Amino acid sequence: ELKVEQNPLFLSMQEGKNYTIYCNYSTTSDRLYWYRQDPGKSLESLFVLLSNGAVKQEGRLMASLDTKARLSTLHITAAVHDLSATYFCAVDISFGNEKLTFGTGTRLTIIP
Amino acid sequence: GAVVSQHPSRVICKSGTSVKIECRSLDFQATTMFWYRQFPKQSLMLMATSNEGSKATYEQGVEKDKFLINHASLTLSTLTVTSAHPEDSSFYICSARESGGVFYEQYFGPGTRLTVT
Question: Residues B69-84: what's their mean pLDDT?
């Protein structure tokens, strides 16, 4: 059974600081997704990582994937209040079926 | 960009009644749609995979007779919660994959919040 774990579950950080959210998964996969969810809302797609060593950046967020370590990271640079949300990683191991298994989520709160 | 809608966005129903939730792909055709459930402050759990013109594939532990899924066209999938009970109260989110599109892209709907009283 595929397990996807995120660390930390809760993160409270000050504006301007840097931090990293970790996503570990238990089964080989070459595709990993990062999503953002605001309270009461659905998911917003942030990144799709498709190969080992993939790195993508958008604004203050940067995601990377190490398929050998079964680890993805979401790095936040110089956090701003607007980044407060819950972040989920998701893994797809069923090639051709695209069934996603979501991580536990990280609730990020940026304190002014 | 690809847009997925859900209707209704919120629904309150009495215990024992049935509720139908619609998921539509607005500007693309979707052979495959997925239904997820999210309890408060928890992650998303895949309930079932819906394929146009065929029976849905349910995940382990999901009662197929309680959560009826119909994918009658390439743009519409419906989830019917039958004989709803308070424990079915949750946030239901659908997603859709574009037919012939990029294989790894899924587009998520805005979600439907179901409250069973």
Answer: 94
Partners of residue A66 on adjacent β-strands: A71
Query: A33 CA to chain B: closest CA distance, Å?
Result: 10
B2: contact with A, CB 8 A cutoff: no
B104: which 2 tokens? 């790894």
Nearest CB partner across the interface for A102, out of B43, B105, B111: B43
Which residue numbers in chain A have pLDDT < 50?
none
Selecting from A42, A101, A105 the residue whose C-beta is nearest the C-beta of B110 gives A42
Q: B29-46, pLDDT tens digit by residue?
A: 998 999 999 999 999 999
User: Which residues touch A76 (CB under 8 Å, ≥6 apart)?
Assistant: A13, A18, A19, A20, A21, A60, A61, A83, A108
Q: What is the DSSP string of A47-83?
A: EEE-STT-EEEETTEEEEEETTTTEEEEEE-S--GGG
